[in-house]
Amino acid sequence: MSGNLQKLYEGKAKILYITDNPEILLADFKDDATAFNAQKKGSIIDKGRINCSISSKLFQILANKGIKTHFIDNPTPNQMRVKAVTILPIEVIVRNIAAGSLCQQTGLELGKVLLKPLVEFYYKNDQLGDPLLTRDRLYVMQLATAEQVDTITHLALQINKLLQEFFQQCGITLVDLKLEFGLDSQQQILLADEISPDTCRLWDNAKTDPNQRVMDKDRFRKDLGNIEDAYQEVLHRVIQVTLPQKNN
What we know:
Blueprint: E1 6-10, E2 14-18, E3 24-29, E4 32-35, E5 40-43, H1 47-64, E6 71-76, E7 79-83, E8 86-87, E9 90-97, H2 101-106, E10 113-123, E11 132-133, H3 135-140, H4 146-169, E12 172-183, E13 189-192, E14 200-204, H5 218-221, H6 227-240
Antiparallel strand pairs: 1-2, 2-3, 3-7, 4-5, 6-7, 8-12, 9-10, 9-12, 10-11, 12-13, 12-14
């Protein structure tokens, strides 16, 4: 389907195409895998289809709970039609358990449960290494207004809570997740990008071994092996859960 469409943008995990409707884009999910700001590159078999399927289900679950997202539908298993948005150049990380850079930068022990979810902002800029930003730096750099920061913080915490509850139904612990938001043509803030094992740390509740429990891109980052099996298992568990009824 994307063969005759004009490419708008190609990122590390997806290609965006222009459609005949300026309000709608087509996102094609790739099998490419990157880590450490693309310093490590590879491929995960069938990752595009898996991540597109997981993201689509999670977007629908969040929409049923009142979260506005860019998701429309899936024309093919590895493609997603989305509302066109202007992405805020901010990666919003919500952490429930200490892992990754939080441990490296603070000395917190891997696996330490945080007293409350921690919301962090990172500048979406590979050349600068996606640096951690304070709110004041966000304002100085004019990346977002104070009102927008308040809104995405509130949404991020709400999304985190909903997904924690959902993943527990799947026998999975949501350690942390990366969210991206965009502005539509009416300047509404919508949840965008994807929610998948590429953008979340997910641990299998049935396993205690620090390496065996990993079900996300840390398997690729840390060369833990069985990457495809882990992604497939997340998909299998996610699609088994029935969608809740939409809130009125």
